[in-house]
Amino acid sequence: MDLTYDTYDFTPHLGWSASRYETFDKCKRMYYYTYYGRHATHVPPYKVRMLKDMTSVPLEIGNIVHDVMEAFLRRLQKDDTNIDEQRFFEYARTQTRHYFSRKTFREIYYRQAPSLDMDAVDSRVQTCLDNFIGSPVYHWLFMKAIRNRENWLIEPGGYGETRLDGMKAYCKMDFLFPVDKHIYILDWKTGRKDAYKHSGQLVGYAAAASASFHIPAHLIFPKIVYLYPAFEELEVSITEQDLKDFLTRVRHQTEDMLSYCEDRDSNVPKEIDSFPLSPSEPLCRNCNFQELCFPEGLDTAKARFG
Ligand code: SF4
User: Fold this and answer.
1) Burial of residue 214 (number of CB atoms within 10 Å: 0-12, 13-18, 19+)
2) 182-211 per-position pLDDT tens digit
3) Does ligand 1 come within 6 angstroms of the Cβ of 289?
4) What are the residue ranges spanned by the domains of the chain?
5) How far is the CA of 180 from the centre of ligand 1 (A)?
């Protein structure tokens, strides 16, 4: 089984991804600023970029846990002795300080919190790692998956560009590895379970693995591993029909997004006015671009919400 990703020359074409369509579906204006911000003429480019790059506490906890898991797996690939848990947690703490010191947080920028509660952050990261170390997956990696560790794909670089039935798409997997004749795909989650959304995500991983490595659906086992608040797994069994349905969905979603392009081949958007706001208090409070839509502040703007 050859687990080497194809590489692709740059093309300006719109590339589908689950997160791109999710943003498109939530709010067209958020989608515009996220994917076409450099076309905005009423805001300085640096401002859109700064807002887009802003992070949040839950997002950053996810990044830290993913990077610590990546370091753990790379270490396990070279050395299968038990880890020193104390050093593992120290490493996570150091990474946490590093990540949190160099980023702008939405909670602070929009004055949603007076400061970041680093004790709560450390505690949450530690719970995720504790849950992982105590889980069946951890022991299974040591006992079984390790036998073929030279073929592990751990956080493959780049954006996970692939082709799904000829369509440009992005699907980045956390960890993909062979066990016997099967392919397992694990995705770590540090947020709450959303079985419907995450099951769809698993079918997407299977479609990408099937397309990239020419593996039939029944040999692919994608799994979500929830690490917070408690360890839990979500698995789906994949059929060829699931993959076909998924490709149909990607085709429709790509077409939906392309309908907002002035120039579809070059992925140039229509004017910003074609991307309406979808004001909703919970959505806007969690949106990095709220100051562009509501310069008077969300509290003052509340009356404008439907
Ligand atoms: S603040 Fe609200 S309306 Fe504006 S882009 Fe964000 S989600 Fe959309």
Assistant:
1) exposed
2) 999 999 999 999 999 999 999 999 999 999
3) yes
4) 18-258
5) 47
